[in-house]
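Hey, quick one: can you model this chain's 3D structure?
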Amino acid sequence: MKNRIEAVIFDLDGVIVSTDECHFRAWKQMADEEGIPFDRQINERLRGVSRMESLGIVLERAERAYTDEEKVSLAARKNEYYRQLLANLTPADVLPGAKQIVRNLRLRGARTAIGSSSRNAPLILEKTGCEGLFDAVADGNGISRSKPDPEVFLLAARLLNIEPRRCAVVEDAFAGILAAKAAGMKAIGVGCAQACDLADDTAAGLDEMSAERLLASN
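Sure thing. Here's the predicted structure for all 218 residues.
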């Protein structure tokens, strides 16, 4: 029997807000300071991956090994650069169609949430004027395992008081699609995740998606 979708959980970076350039510039600054080659192709591998796991990918091209203590310091440095860049975010950085589709979902009685591995989600929501737009926010501050582990999406479902099988997830990263499926949720791929065969539906972005499609039974 098909599950009626009652809630939609959105990844934040790359789905609701465009922060990709901030991430790239922050990683690039840190890598340049360490003399580690880093470009946009490597940056693509960091989508939907936790900060420490991303650092591991960046350090693959390092000429020396880093201690655990040094790795923590490098990750903190990158995050400081990233937060400095986030301070310049405005409502103009909200991606096309994002606010409208959330409003349309709520008009149809659906619940909405953010499901992001980022610990900077509250700052991003504040700077882009998206505070209060969602019924719940599950982010990196409340989880111990990043995507593709389903923990953040399961947390969002608990906060919404909706069964996972009645939730849909919108993601722009393969790791996020894997996490949604592991949580037993409908998975919608946008952006780079359009190419993910595991996605139940895809679109270039939220401006090409409708509330009706998001709420369609899976």
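One thing worth noting: The mean pLDDT is 94.
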